[in-house]
């Protein structure tokens, strides 16, 4: 069994000064960490890389040249026989499954994405699972900031858990 921690839309240091302590603890315990874009500073890329056993990340629409120098727009990786795709943006909620099927079905089993700050879990008609962790630092109109942990084993995602981050000083709560 492998543990995959998924975060997106950290927006550091604008939305928060740092990642919440429970997120750092999960990062340090994970086998793989995936970040689906909008890091917003190179220091976050370097810190996650230093504190992760393995980091896979992509650039988001708010990431500048300093972040983009380390990352591509999309990434793929395999963990315990499950093929993952990673991208920042999949477009609006309406038609998401159709668009993702057209772009990713057959190439990956699970597509991890960010951008909306809204936790998401759906499966396309072709069987592609779509997952968004939300944001651990900017909840927008959600009840809480969130991040995602996946247990991956035997060629499947054995468990998916969204964790809520309690509100704290320095975390955007708009």
UniProtKB/TrEMBL annotation:
Keyword Metal-binding among record annotations: yes
EC number(s) per entry: 3.1.4.-
Keyword annotations from UniProtKB, A to Z: Metal-binding
Cofactors demanded by this protein: a divalent metal cation
Domain of life: Bacteria
Gene3D superfamilies given in the database record: 3.60.21.10
Domain Calcineurin-like phosphoesterase, first and last residues per copy: 3-152
InterPro entries, alphabetized: Calcineurin-like_PHP_lpxH, Metallo-depent_PP-like, Phosphodiesterase_MJ0936/Vps29
Keyword Methyltransferase among record annotations: no
Family: Belongs to the metallophosphoesterase superfamily. YfcE family.
PANTHER family, sorted: VACUOLAR SORTING PROTEIN VPS29 (PTHR11124)
Protein name per its UniProtKB record: Phosphoesterase
Organism of provenance: Kineococcus mangrovi
